[in-house]
Amino acid sequence: MKYFFSLYLFLSIFSEGNAQEIPTEFFEFKKQKYLNNAGKEWKETSLFGPARTRLHHDESDSLLIETRMGLFSKNESLALYGYAHFTFKKYFYAYLYPRIVNDVSAFDRYSGIPREIERGGLNSGETDLSGIGFQNDWLLFQIGRGRQSWGAGEEIQLALGENSPAYEYTLLGLDFGKIRVKYLHGFLESISPNINRYITARGLEWFTRENLIIGLSETVIYSGENRPIDLAYLNPISNHLEMELNDRLNTIGTGSANGVWQLSVDYKPFQNFRLSGNLLYDEFVLDKIQFEQGKENGKAYSLKGVYTISNTNKRLLMIYSSFVKVGTPTFRHGSGSNNFVQRNKPLGWKYGSDGQAFKLGLQFFNLKNLMGQIEFGQRAMGEESILFRPYDDYADYLAGPFPSGLVEEIIFFSGECQWWWKTTISVLGQFEWTSSNLAETEMAYTLGIDIYYPHDFWIK
């Protein structure tokens, strides 16, 4: 343990750098999200994210290395982080983003395990992003650690979202112009008793290059006691139902995997208006006898509209509205190890399932160093959400009240603003007011600062 934190800091500075995945705390990621929300970079928009850095290395025989070492504080919580990213011969890349913290609950997406022994007040560390890959104009191949965010729109993803804990996966993408495909296969975690959990997904999107993107995707969680990687799922153009129903998996039967299917649409009917939607099915009820028994489809959907009020070379101002609804049994399975969770947290929508949320918002970005947003809305959460009982089986697929059981209804008003005083120094302010029918009214504040030292260089 005495070398634990020094090793992390060493890797932060001297290991691989400038890669495709972008930490969500970085200015580059947040800028791209604001631009995507307004539809400003439509040709770069994809239904199968998250946001990635642009290839900008033109010297094919040299190695570009970009590093930074930083400190990020939120109220009394502290994180030390490093980022390294390199590009070699234009198309090869690698990256690393480790964090060391003193409070594992204070930082988004963090899933490291706290230790009893502290070093400098810090008690936990993990690698949030890392990997190697190759990318050119039509092919992407990547092996690493991170997360995927699949679906149309910003912050309305259903099955896979950008705020889940990280996991290991291999990613394959092909770009044929108007048709793009993506495939991933990864390992989530092992849970007691010796159950290995995996994830695989495949998606296809049709991109008009003008104003419409349509996508279809399938995402599967499979697991089993001491179960190895299932070679049947290594086929990028396979189908979960065909393989499961025909006993082509390495575990016989229909209870070892949980698949969901999603239709996503991104549409710009006007230059300053973007409409995004996702429709997901987890369980199909097709037989007449099932309907007579009172069973229902496991489904979810989300919708978001963004209207850009001001779009100039000095500022970006948008108003938006979104609605998300995830059914009671959605993302649960007859075997709880196949639920859409990772390290006790949802893989997709941050409130899990058995709930719905509506919000109105306003976003501002001066296209330089200041961005912020305010939101007002309401959400309702039932007691069957995977947020509360992440590894429990579903009770049944019988239709019933939604949300189920004891329902918490919350009205919220929140906002945040981040200002980059200098390129390497930024100040963050956040607040959230909540009023619940099951708890007292609360007001939470967050004040943070991010400072880092960058060092970029070439090796020829």
- SS-based class: mainly beta
Overall 3D shape: globular
Mean pLDDT: 89
Rg to the nearest angstrom?
22 Å
How many β strands by DSSP?
22
First-last Cα distance? 37 Å
Reported for the largest beta sheet, the result is: 18 strands, antiparallel, barrel
Task: Output the helix-strand order.
Answer: HHEEEEEEEEEEEHEEHEEEEEEEEE
**Low-confidence parts lasting 5 or more residues at pLDDT below 50?**
1-19
Percent helix = under 10%
**With helices defined by DSSP (H or I, 4 residues minimum), what is the helix count?**
4
Strand content: over 45%
Describe this structure in words.
With 460 residues, the chain is mainly beta. The chain has helices at residues 4-14, 27-37, 240-245, 288-292, and strands at residues 48-49, 63-74, 77-88, 92-101, 124-135, 139-146, 149-150, 167-175, 179-191, 195-207, 212-225, 257-270, 273-283, 298-311, 316-326, 341-342, 345-346, 355-365, 370-381, 408-422, 425-436, 442-459. The strands form 3 sheets. The chain has an 18-stranded antiparallel β-barrel. It has a two-stranded antiparallel sheet with strand order 1-7. A two-stranded antiparallel ribbon has the order 16-17. β10 (195-207) and β11 form a beta hairpin. The longest helix has 11 residues, at 4-14.
